[in-house]
Amino acid sequence: MDREGWTVSAANLDRMSTILKGLIVALAATLAVSSAGADAPTTSRHAPAIHAAALRGTTGCGAAAACTSRAVTGPIGTRIAASQGLADWVRLAADLHGSAIGAVAIPRMRARDALDALYAELDVAVFPGRIAAATDSLSAEQDAAVGDLVTSVWTAHRLSARAIAGTGIEQLDALRAAHVITASSSGLRDVSVEQELARTLDALDAVNMDLMATAAAVLADAIERFPRLDLADDIDLPLVFIGGSGDDVHADDRVILIDEGGNDTYLNNAGGALLETAGSAIAVDRGDGADVYRADRGAQGFGEGGVGILLDEGGADSYSLHSFGQGGTFGGIGVLYDEGPEDDLYLSPHLNGAAPIGTKAASLGGIGMLIDEGGSNVYHQDGLDGLVWGAGGGLGLLASLGDGDDLYRADEVPVELLGTDLGTFAGPIMGSSEAYGAIVLYDEAGNDTYRCGDHVRQGCQSAAGPGSFALLWDVEGDDSYLMGESISPLFFGGGASPIDIVNFPMGQASAYGWGLPAWGPAFALLRDEDGEDRYVAEHWAQGHAVTGGTALLYDTGGDADVYATASPLVGTRGDGQTWADGSIGFGADE
User: What is the value of pTM for the model shown?
Assistant: First the structure.
């Protein structure tokens, strides 16, 4: 290999091709899900989240009203194609994270008794006559359905409370807001940041994700079981609402919210579970209404030390959230699932001069997932730590299904919004992982555009930091992968001079270990299966690895793929070529 020109000599081409094939085989093994009936895996401290654990259901639910037990096996690609609805995707995400879903018996309760139990669990006082008035008019079938749903939420709340018992996670809200993970892994280090990072990782490690995943499965199954109810009157109680077929405005936070249809507006938590309110929350919007979701933080499918799920059945919907949600989590599980084929908007505006953070399948510990079943969608977040991001042992999973032409967009923000003086800044964002995290960004079809603006540091479009894993997988379509430039210096380790490596917007399969073997290796893959694609990047991208990282860009199909770069640091790329770049960085276009 010619290190100065970053090209591959003819003599080394065969050897590198063999290595590439070995990496692809290893990757296939990594992404396969074993069907063996072994015990549940044990992960090491702060280990990367994604691995080849088997998802195995167990028995023992007896005559319960419902049971979480359900075994699903097979390679990840097969399982993505076979996933049919919320419960399947929750199980797939748990499997990728390495969290085992246990068997839980959901007891049978009348609606009134279930509500009594839920309010007792939440320590909320509600006059018994009010509960009776809301439930006495229910038919036997309606009473059974409401009782099953409420009992499932009560069960999930108890499971998630057990999952975080003794973790100290409730002490870490300020650390999350201070971007401790990002500051540490990017090199902005001092003793206090390292101590805060250690505290954060210790608390996240202590969360029992098997119990948390079981709670998520309980809720997902209950949502799928719950029938449409033709209620004579809405059930409108503290933290619980079931009904509403008109164009409703929901402003009060709810633990259970089922809206039966209409063009609705949600100004509340909409399936956001916060530590200070409840360990579990669900919101379901039925019908194909054009719904609007708008909140500041902790909403639209967010789990903070608990499980939050938002399911929207259809319609051209708009989701707007500044921070922490839209399938995001902090030490729990957050899910946003949009079932409709219409075009949806997922936005994260600035708020009171503050930059957005932690939305759209963003996970600091736990599992954050956003699934959209169709349409030409827009996924947009400026700033950092969002749009498919994982850290602290967390998994961020975004799947955009169908053949819509999707736009994934991330732009920089003025760094004064982040409290520093480094110019303009964005990243890690759009398919980035760091600090023992993992991400999967999966797009099924369509002519998609992945666009990262200028000054995106620390990576986008499949970039893996120390001890982490990143996969961007686009199956079909003529796609564009566009990255801007970075010109402002980012100082490494508090030193007096800039380190050029950190200035460059790394991505399109870029792994950077920063030479920190104690953190473990970094692995990044960009897999594009078909179409005539365009890759544009200024610096260190398209299958590039820095010390301690391994990266692979693998493009198959299409006869006119274009690779463009203005930097001599990026080796020769091209349609039908194979190349190597950096420490263990590879690319192949077939």
Answer: 0.85
